[in-house]
Amino acid sequence: MELSNKSEYALLALIELASCYSSGESLQIKQMAELQNIPIRYLEQLLATLRRGGLIKSIRGAKGGYVLAREPYKITIWDCFICIEGLDAIAPVSHQNSKNTENQVIQDVWQEACQAANAVLQQYTLQDLCERRTSHRQKDLMYYI
Known about the structure:
The protein is mainly alpha-helical. The chain has helices at 5-21, 29-36, 40-52, 77-85, 87-90, 101-123, 126-141, and strands spanning 56-59, 65-68. The chain has one domain: Winged helix-like DNA-binding domain superfamily/Winged helix DNA-binding domain (Arc Repressor Mutant, subunit A, Orthogonal Bundle). Helix 1 crosses helix 4 (77-85) and helix 1 packs across helix 7 (126-141). It starts with a helix and ends with a helix. The mean pLDDT is 88.
């Protein structure tokens, strides 16, 4: 399993939306792109996919933009990956018709590793990512004598 640029950019955009969720503010594409250094055209495509996937909502008008469709603690990293990459990208590939015992053993262990990775992705939410970001920023601000 690999973190694609597409998924990473989508998560970065979602983190920005999650950080604004409690204030009820929407973020415009330009703001998110600048905050996370994401190309605007690429971000437009990602946000459209996230909107179709039900993770975000678009708001029209002068103060329009994007907001999360539900609370940050209810959206997991798994939800984002499924929306952006599709279920096939996260599901382990099974070679059931492998006749070689060694190959089957390797496939069994690989499937177990993929299931463990998927469990971790299902455990962490956007709220968790925001809290970790805050924690890392506080560590960066600390200096030692």
